[in-house]
Each structure stands twice: as structure tokens, then as C-alpha cells.
Amino acid sequence: MALSRKLVQQRSSVFGSRSMSWWRSVEPAPKDPILGVTEAFLADPSPDKVNVGVGAYRDDNGKPVVLECVREAERRIAGNLNMEYLPMGGSVKKVEETLKLAYGENSEHIKDKRIAAVQALSGTGACRLFADFQKRFRPESQIYIPVPTWANHHNIWRDAHVPQKTFRYYHPETKGLDFAGLVDDIKNAPNGSFFLLHACAHNPTGVDPSEEQWKEISKLIKEKGHFPFFDMAYQGFASGDPERDAKAIRIFLEDGHLIGIAQSYAKNMGLYGQRVGCLSMLCEDEKQAVAVKSQLQMLARPMYSNPPVHGALIVSTILGDQELKTLWLKEVKGMADRIIGMRTALRENLEKLGSPLSWEHITNQIGMFCYSGMTPEQVDRLTNEFHIYMTRNGRISMAGVTTGNVGYLANAIHEVTKST
């Protein structure tokens, strides 16, 4: 008995020491470049500090906003529904209304039931679900991602073990689209490649192709047999008109592409923390759409089983009621118009200061972000000398610009760039 006890103690000692060393090799992860900016901003005691790094809408007082249509939807659903699980594919009503926004209210593709669609965990979750689907069913494929892009795109396809390539997109000298480079890279990519495209309000540059350029891109992608996957995080939030912001997708549909789309309600309904999104894939016919949807659900099952219910109820309530939908369209236009107005004000302030640089790109770009063209060193000066916080690539979140701080921001930018 004593021997047995001794053996147990020895084994416990061995296993105990082994368990103590399991995680010793784990190093701290690098800080997220955007979340790190917010942390530094919050820690700064200066009363003059300005945060133009955050990717969330703010009103003209710099405060977070909850749309009135969202508040009304919450009042209507409060206490009226249970909290049972949604199906793996999410809320059917919410998905149906979401598809109308992307594919068109009277889309033949919807009527023909050719679209496989599931509710996803906002746009990030939709992209990840697609990346895993791509890896499972086209394991030999790769994804072409624009330079630059939202940094998390690289993380998503990397963790799904999909090989990545890049294609040219932004032209630093013109601060606009590198259309010639983009076209060249589409032509030179192996036939049947996957291309990640921003449907509108490209993040981080705010540079979008024109309608004619989109038509040329669609034509080339079809000629090469590439698969276009659209990340549409800003529909309605870019121009103030959801139909206008879906123009690129409609062009590709008219050209007969089979496409994938990631949609999000974070920006255009302000439902950031609710994580409400949708992944859809246009298929050859209804039978194929049923099969694809079933496989998307199978991918979701071990990830998160099924999506959350509250945000889906908000979206379906707003889009399913004409009065609330009209109010939403008015409010999303108001958000877009405020950002467009701040672009004009920032440019005008810089020009009044006699800046030797051209700031036309501020108003030529669209959406939440302005790719300012400032260097990391200039951004560091903005932070260290003026308490202005943004990512080191010079991306300004126009949502953080207000009538109260736009003059201060312009003066600071002028100071750090006037000797350029």
C-alpha cells in the first residue's frame, strides 16, 4: 500500500512538473495595430487628444451612435420573442432581406433560389466561413488580395490555410487606383484564381474603381475564369445610397459571374457589437445552392454552432417594415453625408493654411477612411506633438473628425507635412 502511494506521488510530481511547462514557450501576441491606437488614446491625459484611428462611426460630438430605427426595432421585439437557438444557417427572414440589398429587390437569382446564404458573425465571420469553404472544396486554389487591404483579411485566409497572393490596387503617387497594375495582375494570375474585391469604400484607402473600370475588371475576371469574392462592409455607408454602393456587384451579376459576398451590418446599422452578417454564394442552379448551403452549415457547426439571435431580429424587423426601412435609409444617408462633409472641411482647412501639397484625394476618396499619404514618421509626430492618434499607415478615420476638431487636425497635419 505504501509503495503504491509512493508511485502515485512520483507520478503526480512528474505530471505536475510537465504541466507547469506546457505553455512556457508561448510569447505575447503582437498588439493589434488598430486596437493599440485606441489603448494609447485612452491612456493619454491630454484634453486636446483626438482619435481618428477607430473604425466605428461617431456623431459630430465624437460620441457613439445608436440609430433611431434600431431603438424602435428593439422596442418592438423586447419581451415578444424567446431566446431559442437559431438554425445553423441563421434567421431565414434576416437572410432573405439581406440578399435583397446585395442582389436587388427583384433579383431573378433570388426568385430562382440559386443563392446559398447563411447568417454569419458579421463580415469577419462571413469571410472566414468562405475561406474555410474555399480550402475544403478547392484545396488547390489561392486567394489574390489587394495591396493594401484591411489587415485582418490576411489573418483570415492564413488561418484557413489558403495560400495568398497579392494584386496591385493603390497608387501612392497619385493617391488613387493603380488600374494598370490591377489589370495586369488579373491577366497574369493563373486561370481560375480567387480574387478578393472590396465592393465599395475600400478599406483602408477609400479608393474605388469607377463604374467603367468595374466593367473592365468584371470582363477580365470572366475571361480568366477567376472567382470574384466581394467583401461589402459599407453598403449604404459609403455614398448614402445602398443601391449605388452595390453597383460593382450588379455589374458582375449582369456579366454572368458566379460570385460570393460577405455582408455586414456593423457600419450601416451601427450594430458593431451584435456581429450581424451574411455569407452568400450565387450557384449554377437551385440544387447546387442547396448543397453549398448545407456544407456552409457543416462548417459553421464546429466553429460556433449557430449565430446569435438579437442582432438578426433587429435587422429583420427594420428591413421587413417599410416605415422602419425608410427611417434607416434616411439615417444611413445622414451618417454618410456627415463623413463627406468632414472630408470637404478637412481639405478646405488644409488649403486655407497654404499647404504646398495637393489634398484633392481627401474628397476624391469615399467611405469611412481617408488614406492621407502621410508617412509613419509624420504620424508619430502627430501623436507625440499633437496627441492625434491614427494607424501608422496614415489612415484617417473620417468618422472621428468633427466640426470641433477639424481645424486642430488640419493645423497639425499641416505642421508635420509642410516640409515634405
TrEMBL record:
Keywords, sorted A to Z: Aminotransferase, Pyridoxal phosphate, Transferase
InterPro entries, alphabetized: Aminotransferase_I/II_large, Asp_trans, NHTrfase_class1_PyrdxlP-BS, PyrdxlP-dep_Trfase, PyrdxlP-dep_Trfase_major, PyrdxlP-dep_Trfase_small
PROSITE patterns referenced in this protein's UniProt entry, alphabetically: AA_TRANSFER_CLASS_1 (PS00105)
GO cellular component: mitochondrion
Domain of life: Eukaryota
One BP term from GO: amino acid metabolic process
PANTHER family associated with the record: ASPARTATE AMINOTRANSFERASE (PTHR11879), ASPARTATE AMINOTRANSFERASE, MITOCHONDRIAL (PTHR11879:SF54)
Family the entry assigns: Belongs to the class-I pyridoxal-phosphate-dependent aminotransferase family.
NCBIfam families: PRK09257.1 (NF006719)
Record-given protein name: Aspartate aminotransferase
Organism of provenance: Pyrus ussuriensis x Pyrus communis
